[in-house]
Amino acid sequence: MTKTKQFIQFLSGVVLVLSAPAVTNAQAVLDAPRPAAVPQNALAVASQNVGIKTCRPALERLSTLAVNGTRGNDVLLDWDRQRVDAGPVFSLIGLEYPNGGAAMSVTAVPTNNGGCSVAAERISAAPVSCQAVAQQELKGMTATRLLPTFTVFTDAKDPTATVSLIDTPPGCLVIRRYVEFNWRAPR
After folding, report:
1. Dihedral over Cα of 134, 137, 139, 145: its sign
2. Are 116 and 127 in contact (CB under 8 A)?
3. How confident is the model at residue 41 (pLDDT cuts 50, 70, 90)?
4. pTM, entire model
5. How far apart are CA 102 and CA 142, in angstroms?
6. Chain mean position to CA 46
7. Domain membership flag for residue 119
8. Prior bond to 170 cis, omega within 30?
9. How many CA atoms lie within 13 A of 89 on its CB side?
10. pLDDT tens per residue, range 103-117
11. Within-domain flag for 14
């Protein structure tokens, strides 16, 4: 081995020995990893802040399903400021997932019997064809083609829900819809 190679090896060893305590000390001052914080449900907070009471359980239930698994969410909220608890509520929730974004529109209208009629639509884009989405996720559902690029899927076991697939090559726009009249919070 040449004297140059021996010197380089020696320096490498010195650098490792001298840097080892520094690395150990640096690692010792770092905090242990913390689990990611669960994002706040923006629609639940906003509906409470503006004084919505009658339909808040419906808004909270639907928005909780929407924000599950998200990194973040925010909301656009429209309500009747003259009849806060007696008028309709319209919202659009932005959803941030680890692999992309989606939106969910939630509408709640108080009914005369103390319940709420609700409609919710979750809108997302799939990076695959609608045919692939249908084959992977909608097996057993009944397909009704409304237009050459628009197909609605229903399930007899859940007549208040539909899944619409709209061809947007090379991907697919997916709209999951839920509607219920006179919904009441479980007791």
Report:
1. negative
2. no
3. very high
4. 0.76
5. 25
6. 17
7. yes
8. yes
9. 32
10. 999 999 999 988 999
11. no
